Amino acid sequence: MNEESTNLVERVRFGTFELNVRTGELVSIGTEPVEPGSAKVLLREQPFRILRILVERQGQMVTRREIRQILWPNDTFVDYERSINVAMAILRKALADDADRPKYIETLARRGYRLIAPVEWQESTADIPKVEDLQTSTPLPANRNGGLTGTRISRYWLAIVASLLVLGAAGALFWRHHSGIELSSSDTLVLADVTNQTSDAALDEGLSFALLVALEQTPYLNLLGGDKLHETARRLGLSEDTKITPLVTPQVAMQVCRKTNSRAVVSASIRDVGNRFRITLSAIDCESGKTLKQEVHEAETRDDIVRTLGLCAFQLRASLGESRDSLRRFNQPLDQATSSSPEALQFLVLGYEKQLRGDISGALGYYQRAEEKDPKFALAYAAHGSGLGWLEQSDQALGRLSKAFELRDRLTIPSRFHVETQYYGSAHQQWDKELSIAQTWVQAFPHDIIARTNLRTSLTSLGRQNEALVQAREAARLLPSEPTLTNLLRSAIYAQQLGEARETYDEAKSLGFESLALHSLHALLAFLQNDKSEMQQEWAWASQDPLRGRFVLHLKSNTEVFYGHSRTAHRLALLNEESSAKAKLLSDAAIFESLEALRDAEIGNLRLSLASVADAVQKSQDRRVLLIAAMAFARAGNTQQSEKLVERLTLLFPESFSIQAFSLPMTRAAIKLAEHDPAATVELLRPVEPYDLVFADGFEYVYPAYLRGLAYLQLKQGALAAAEFQKVLDHSGLGGGFVTGALAKLQLARAQVLTHDTKAARKSYEDFLALWKSADPDLPIYKEARAEYAALRKTAQ
């Protein structure tokens, strides 16, 4: 694959920007970037295609109707108007353009847009197809319902999505490198289901997944993402039961290939030839329908089928131009990377299907059967561990993930990276080790969505929110799906980029995405932007099904205390805890109650706090419950009980990075603060400072900075205290509506009194009291604040 960033015939300049019309890479030229790397942007698909249309028209108007027809031909399910608005907003942001005073894109009211900057193509562009020409010439007829029908997801789609969940022979090959075919970095391939022409039904389920693993192990190939394929199938009006298999229905696969502007379809078949099995693997050109390359091999026995399929895949990669060095580096025998047992593969895919439908308990049975058929099936252990983790069976999950980790050398490189990040990250909270692996993974496979996602997770868990946002952006650009846009929304909030968060939420909604996470994040964003109408919208949604909406209702309970409405918050919290407990979600109920106890401790309701935290610990011994309880006990003044929990957690989780490097030092600091030893508090928090912005184990509230500020207040070091409370206020996205975000205004006022800045202190007190203008009048900290403010005003007079 050609690794050069651009080719001369691919580049066009306008104003101070240069656009690669194949890859969507937008580069700012002639200006100094604000940050390293900020001069280069990889546009998402819809903004990129709109910009390309405008560039090609060179100053002529492009109507909104034309944009709609080009981006969504034959579609009826997209909110076009909103989608175009969102795409235009993203594009203007990339160009730093202002719709009211445009330098690049002029809006022609109620008609369309035009590019007003001069366009300069770097060389002839005759070989570059126009955006309009990228559409399918002859659309398939829609089904009777005008969209997706049926109840079964296609096996290919399941195999693609399953890769998101878990994710020898070379010496005998006839070498055929430099065959005349070479893929570019922007060429995508459509991978079709394997056609089973044998009477062996067990081969139906697993071979497509095995082929996916074989081709995904190399960074040379760029397979069309499962979300993109599924979305394209919807746009073509295909039934979910339609198999994307050229050898059975070639027009379907070619239609998908052309619709997505892919280069070729990769299809495979298996059939009986006497006592053997003949496997054929082909690459078929999308435009002409001609076979570019074909590999045919025969498997001697049933147990040789997977190995032989891997051999075909290896030779096809060579035929498609992959370098000798790349083929050597990324060449794990397929029967080791997956399994030589067709039944084991079948059970794994059936387990994926169950888990994707939400039947995790049913999935576990299939994963276990896969392990029994092949005790060395690393992917089955990884999937089993993932499912057990979803059911919060942490000890059993760790056992399965540990087994997958032991067998990781059998896996392909991306699958091994996936298992390692899962083992170090979700299983052990060793985010520092996960970070190192994820960085290597992204370097080797820059287009791998899961690599970017896992790197984002480790950065988030280490408090590096701006870096995490970069990875979330790239994952969403590569594949704008519900998971990637949700991650981008979350990272934008954590990095305090609320404008980008709003754009991302609007984009997700325009694409029709709907999930519990989107509701929760939208509620948080509405709170942060003080959008009472949208907040009320989410509260109403959650109230219709309190169990399903429990995390939104928990946020509402948090925000009530944020405004000093403790009684209302308690009623909401009690309803949340009771509904979770009735549904046997005891861990959730206990987490809600322990956080309620922590809130009460911060506002001075100490007796109520101690009662709640004791009850929470009785409900559940979950790790997060114990961590929050230890902090709540310390903040409520029961340092003895807090120390007991700290000792217990130290013994239970000796290898957890977040617990040992962040959570427990922070709790020990809170204990010292309660014991009126602020100097010790500051020292204990000194090594924690790099992790002040961590999101891990429930402490996403910039808590270390808040505690450090309280310690400086006790030490009468007002300037240092003020800096810490300002840090809390500057990161309200991580504050999550927790009460310390409001109390930081009060604590800042106290710090400013120590620095003798009466004017600033008075304003900070007024800001806090305005926030708590309807607060419960008997709250201890509220009464203290009012008395302090009255004294300050009296002194000023």
Helix content: 55-70%
Number of DSSP strands? 12
Number of helices: 36
Choose one word for the global shape. globular
User: What is the percentage of strand-forming residues?
Assistant: 5-15%
What can be said about the biggest beta sheet?
Answer: 5 strands, antiparallel
Q: Between the first and last Cα atoms, what is the distance in angstroms?
A: 76 Å
- The radius of gyration is 29 Å
Q: What is the SS-derived class?
A: alpha+beta
Stretches with pLDDT under 50, minimum 5 residues? 1-8, 32-38, 124-179
Average pLDDT confidence is 85
Strands across the major sheet, in which order? 4-3-2-1-8
Quick overview:
This protein is of the alpha+beta class and 797 residues long. Strand 10 and strand 11 (276-285) form a beta hairpin.
Task: Describe what you observe in this structure.
The chain is α+β, with helices and mostly antiparallel strands and 797 residues long. A five-stranded antiparallel sheet has the order 4-3-2-1-8, with no helix packed on it. Strands 9-10-11-12 form a four-stranded mixed sheet. α21 runs parallel beside α23. β6 and β7 form a beta hairpin. The chain has 36 helices and twelve strands.
